[in-house]
């Protein structure tokens, strides 16, 4: 089939063009093979030639065909004759460091073991297999029924002993060795570590795993799928919550105010910008409904009411505005509701109210209906229902220890004594999550803290900053204290590293000094130095903040005490 | 130099099995010679007169003259009978046609028993026939690579190396265990090798080219057992014993399952072993055309629903084979249930193992760390694994024992290659450039003696 070559786009290879223009067969260039006999050159001569290999201990000559022109000094494949070099010992070494290791092994048997190691290139499976049937097996002195682990243990014990011994002969002070050298020794020793008991245990487990019956495997598979399902669910949950968190963050812009009056002021201000804020909150709660419903929240009315609620949201902004401005009407409505027992039915009670206030009430109802995880609306309610102090007190009594509000009494001329839950100054107005109350991690530490938590295999779904998955009060508390430990710990590590390098540098200097002026003189010079001054060290150490002194920790302490916002502010400053 | 690692030194590779022998040049992908290991021999007693003082010379001369075609030798077993010395001589007939040709008084015998060389004369004749008559080479000019059973003994190996250096004057020699070669022939250096040949079924773990001797597990069930059981089954079911071609003068067509109408020669001097051998060769054909292994576990309903296969024996007897063609190969998996009668060699074995049991036993004898790797590389070799359906059935049986493990089967791709797997491995090994340092040379043999074979061929 002859294809007319398409117009070739400039700067594009033909193959690419034809891929680009679909339905085009890719042109394949036909390589017409043309055998061109080379008459000019003479045919290469091949000869049947004997060769000897350096890999052989005898001088067996085998024959193969080679080009007559080729000449070798050694057999080509002799270069692949690589042998492992297992450790070996001298008599003296044996007596000194191997003999005392294990009385169960005789010299004869140890020699034999090493011989096998060499012969089978440390393939312990084979060594073990042939241990008693090998033609070179000594007739006496070999303990019967050695296990594979016995052989390995012995061999590695010998290696460790030899390494240590030889490093010991190297009479330098380990402190004086460059760090890499000491590390290498440690690494070597670690590599050759063999724990027979562990190994046997491991094999037992493997054996059990290997001998699983069909039923066991089926059961395991079911469990695994179940676990997968749960994990997937959890992931979804976390994802949804993440989304929620993000939208929540968007509408928490306000700067902190600390006193009641400023709350009021701010609140008034806020009410001006209410339409904007509320629309945000509406979007937040839109995301809200799903997890709530799934979680089987107490209010089963939630799902059916989802649609009407949306409608509410559109009027919501107006509603709150109405409520705040004409607080009296609303408060009346709510105080009516407050009379009905318990906090929760309160909203419903209010909902029963007819008339203009029912709009406001319904928005309230929505709130009280959704005691979102961790008192999402706790703060906001407390603030906004200034009129009904008992309302706040009642409905959040259970959550008090979570939100830990400082109850503040404020004189207000027209309303009498008002008891207001004191908010954390950081959080600003509006709803917040309990996990928001965690002390923030300084930006520059964020990465390392996250890493640390990962190492602890703490599952922190939040990608921006660590946050517990299930932010109950207890968890938050532990989380906070964990953070408060990690940060100073990291600081300490940093300082320690610094000191380490300093020591290294000083050592290197000392070495250089020794090299250039000799040991004695160095000692002399060193002794002339001002005596070792611990305080100096301490001063360097002082860079390391002690745990109690870290900002976070101190913050926490204040927090515990439940001090007023102003002292906290001081602390922060 | 070539980059593929091969370097051919024109080595010879010979694998003498219990039923078939394979021999050829290293580096080739098929053995040049493939012939039955069972040879014919006629024994005669000679009275020794003058020349008896030096019987060896006679033998040597005989070989030179006659060996090329029929392979004749005289075994000297001086028997003192009073003051006269008598000598038993054997004339050997090796090769496909030679051993099958009818001769008065010709017995048939094999070199191996239980996988080990038992009759060194026959063994030697096989070598001679392979090298001189089939490959047409001078063994003095070629390194020789030989296979041996995984359970070969040190004394037999010693004899083997003596044979190679003393009798055949090989310049270099190497002996390698069959499972290792089979693994190499499949392109593996580690694996569980399951070999079901003519007389033996064996399994053994191979680790990086070393056969793990403690994992060797074997039993005398194989193709020949199935063949002889087939004969018995035919006798039991149809009261029929096949007549081999050599005895048929003429025959007439008969209806299905009817007694054959055959006119026999009834030749004088037909030996029992020869007759049996010829019958077994018919059964061999029967097995190849009709027998199958059922893919899933054997149950009679399943088997009876399978299509029948027509088969006609040389004497005209014909039948449509039904359940029988599945039942007899089943001996491989369930010997005690499916054997028609217990043969002599298995009388003392108890309990009888199926080949999956053999594989299982071998696997359990290996280190637990190794087992997953072994199961992942199960190499099957040997002619009796060629029954259709075997490749599905065997792993399924294994899988039942290890539901949690991944089992993967390896075998040469074609049937002809599978009959010569071990030989192939030898061919590959002996043509590797890096292998040539391992040969036992004549000089080494001279210096260290025969015991060097245990040192160098691990
Ligand atoms: N296609 C086949 N189907 C079934 N059995 C076969 C087939 N080909 C060969 N055999 C059997 O395989 C056996 C020979 O296998 P082989 O591996 O050569 O054994 P060995 O190495 O012991 O001589 C014989 O018993 C023969 O009957």
UniProtKB/TrEMBL annotation, chain A:
GO biological process terms held by the UniProt record: chromatin remodeling; DNA repair; negative regulation of transcription by RNA polymerase II
Start and end residues of each stretch annotated as Disordered: 280-366, 524-573
DAMP1 SANT/Myb-like domain sequence ranges: 75-163
Chief subcellular location: nucleus
Record keywords, A-Z: Chromatin regulator, Coiled coil, Nucleus, Transcription, Transcription regulation
GO terms under cellular component: NuA4 histone acetyltransferase complex; Swr1 complex
Matches recorded under InterPro entries: DAMP1_SANT-like, Swc4/Dmap1
Residue stretches in coiled coil: 489-516
Pfam families the record matches: SANT_DAMP1_like (PF16282)
Composition-biased stretches (Basic residues): 557-573
Subcellular localization, as worded in the UniProt entry: Nucleus
Biased composition regions of type Low complexity, renumbered to the chain: 318-344
Listed GO MF terms: transcription corepressor activity
Domain of life, per lineage: Eukaryota
Family under the similarity heading: Belongs to the SWC4 family.
PANTHER family associated with the record: DNA METHYLTRANSFERASE 1-ASSOCIATED PROTEIN 1, DNA METHYLTRANSFERASE 1-ASSOCIATED PROTEIN 1 FAMILY MEMBER
Protein's name according to its UniProt entry: SWR1-complex protein 4
Automatic annotation (TrEMBL), chain B:
Superkingdom classification of source: Eukaryota
SMART domains: ACTIN
Annotated stretches, region: Disordered: 66-86
Gene3D superfamilies hit by this protein: 3.30.420.40, Actin, Chain A, domain 4
Family affiliation: Belongs to the actin family.
Protein name per Swiss-Prot or TrEMBL: NuA4 histone acetyltransferase subunit
Species of provenance: Coemansia spiralis
């Amino acid at each position: 089939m002859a294809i007319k070559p398409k117009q070739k786009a400039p700067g594009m290879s033909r193959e690419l063009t034809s891929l680009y223009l679909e339905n085009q067969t890719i042109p394949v260039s036909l390589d017409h093979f043309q055998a061109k006999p080379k008459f000019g050159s003479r045919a290469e001569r091949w000869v049947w030639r004997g060769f000897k290999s350096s890999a052989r201990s005898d001088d067996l000559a085998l024959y193969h065909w080679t080009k007559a022109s080729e000449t070798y000094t050694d057999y080509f494949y002799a270069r692949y004759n690589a042998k492992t070099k297992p450790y070996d010992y001298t008599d003296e070494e044996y007596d000194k460091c191997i003999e005392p290791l294990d009385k169960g092994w005789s010299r004869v048997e140890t020699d034999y073991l090493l011989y096998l190691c060499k012969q089978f290139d440390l393939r312990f499976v084979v060594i073990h297999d042939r241990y008693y049937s090998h033609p070179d097996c000594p007739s006496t002195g070999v303990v019967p029924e050695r296990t594979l682990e016995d052989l390995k243990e012995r061999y590695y014990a010998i290696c460790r002993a030899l390494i240590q011994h030889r490093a010991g002969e190297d009479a330098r002070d380990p402190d004086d060795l460059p760090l890499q050298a000491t590390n290498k020794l440690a690494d070597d020793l670690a590599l050759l570590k063999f724990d027979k008991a562990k190994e046997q245990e491991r094999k037992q487990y493997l054996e059990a795993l290997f001998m699983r019956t069909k039923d066991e495997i089926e059961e395991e598979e079911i469990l695994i799928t179940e676990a997968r399902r749960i994990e997937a669910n959890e992931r979804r949950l976390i994802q949804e919550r993440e989304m929620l968190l993000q939208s929540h963050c968007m509408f928490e812009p306000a700067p902190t105010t600390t006193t009641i009056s400023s709350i009021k002021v701010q609140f008034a201000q806020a009410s001006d910008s209410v339409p904007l804020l509320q629309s945000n909150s509406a979007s937040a709660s839109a995301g809200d409904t799903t997890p709530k419903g799934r979680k089987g929240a107490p209010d089963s009315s939630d799902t059916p009411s989802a649609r009407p609620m949306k409608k509410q949201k559109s009027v919501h902004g107006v509603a709150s505005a109405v409520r705040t401005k004409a607080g009296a009407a609303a408060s009346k409505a709510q105080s009516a509701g407050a009379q009905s027992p318990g906090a929760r039915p309160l909203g419903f009670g209010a909902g029963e109210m007819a008339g203009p206030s029912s709009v406001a009430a319904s928005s309230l109802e929505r709130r009280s209906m959704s005691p979102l995880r961790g008192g999402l609306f706790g703060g906001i309610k407390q603030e906004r229902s200034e009129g009904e102090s008992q309302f706040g007190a009642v409905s959040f009594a259970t959550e008090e220890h979570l939100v830990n509000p400082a109850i503040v009494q404020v004189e207000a001329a027209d309303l009498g004594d008002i008891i207001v839950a004191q908010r954390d100054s950081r959080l600003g107005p509006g709803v917040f999550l309990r996990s928001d109350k965690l002390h923030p991690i300084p930006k520059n530490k964020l990465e390392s803290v996250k890493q640390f938590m990962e190492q602890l295999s703490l599952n922190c779904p939040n990608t921006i900053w660590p946050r517990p998955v299930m932010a109950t009060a207890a968890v938050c508390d532990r989380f906070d204290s964990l953070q408060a430990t990690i940060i100073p710990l990291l600081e300490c590590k940093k300082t320690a590293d610094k000191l380490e390098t300093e020591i290294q540098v000083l050592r290197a200097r000392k070495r250089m000094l020794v090299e250039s002026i000799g040991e004695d003189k160095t000692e002399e010079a060193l002794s002339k130095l001002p005596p070792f001054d611990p305080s100096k060290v301490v001063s360097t150490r002082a860079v390391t903040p002690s745990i109690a002194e870290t900002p976070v920790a101190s913050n926490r302490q204040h927090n515990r005490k439940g001090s007023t916002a102003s002292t906290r502010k001081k602390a922060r400053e | 130099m070539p980059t593929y690692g091969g370097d051919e030194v024109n080595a010879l590779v010979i694998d003498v099995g219990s039923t078939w022998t394979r021999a050829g040049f290293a580096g080739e992908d098929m053995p040049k010679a493939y012939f039955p290991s069972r040879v014919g021999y006629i024994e005669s007693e000679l009275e020794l007169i003058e020349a008896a003082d030096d019987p060896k010379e006679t033998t040597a001369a005989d070989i030179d003259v006659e060996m090329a075609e029929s392979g004749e030798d005289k075994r000297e077993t001086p028997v003192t009978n009073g003051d006269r010395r008598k000598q038993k001589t054997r004339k050997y007939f090796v090769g496909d046609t030679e051993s099958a040709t009818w001769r008065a008084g010709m017995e048939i015998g094999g070199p191996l028993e239980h996988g080990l060389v038992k009759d060194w004369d026959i063994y030697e004749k096989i070598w001679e026939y392979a090298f001189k008559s089939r490959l047409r080479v001078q063994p003095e000019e070629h390194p020789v690579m030989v296979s041996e059973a995984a359970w070969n003994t040190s004394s037999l190996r010693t004899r083997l190396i003596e044979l190679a250096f003393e009798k055949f004057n090989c310049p270099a020699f190497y002996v390698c265990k069959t499972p290792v070669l089979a693994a190499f022939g499949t392109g593996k250096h580690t694996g569980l090798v399951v070999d079901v040949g003519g007389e033996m079924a064996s399994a053994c773990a191979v680790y990086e080219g070393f056969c793990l001797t403690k994992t060797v597990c074997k039993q005398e069930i194989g193709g020949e057992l199935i063949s002889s059981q087939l004969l018995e089954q035919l006798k039991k079911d149809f009261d029929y014993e096949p007549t081999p071609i050599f005895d048929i003068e003429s025959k007439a067509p008969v209806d299905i399952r009817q007694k054959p109408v055959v006119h026999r020669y009834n030749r004088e001097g037909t030996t029992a072993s020869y007759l049996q051998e010829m019958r077994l060769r018919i059964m061999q054909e029967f097995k190849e055309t009709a027998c199958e292994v059922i893919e899933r576990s054997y149950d009679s309903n399943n088997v009876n629903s399978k299509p029948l296969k027509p088969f006609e024996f040389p004497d005209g007897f014909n039948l449509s084979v039904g359940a029988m063609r599945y039942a007899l190969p089943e001996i491989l998996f369930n010997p005690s249930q499916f054997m028609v009668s217990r043969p002599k060699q298995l009388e003392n074995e108890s309990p009888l193992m199926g080949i999956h049991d053999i594989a299982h036993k071998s696997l359990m004898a290996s280190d637990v760390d190794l087992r997953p790797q072994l199961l992942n590389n199960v190499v099957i070799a040997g002619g009796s694994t060629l029954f259709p359906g075997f490749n599905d059935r065997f792993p399924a049986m294994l899988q039942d024992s290890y539901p949690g493990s991944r089992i993967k089967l390896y075998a040469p791709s074609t049937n002809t290659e599978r009959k010569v797997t071990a030989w192939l491995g030898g061919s590959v090994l002996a043509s590797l450039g890096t292998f040539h340092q391992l040969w036992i040379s004549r000089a080494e043999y001279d210096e260290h003696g025969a015991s060097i074979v245990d040192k160098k061929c691990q």
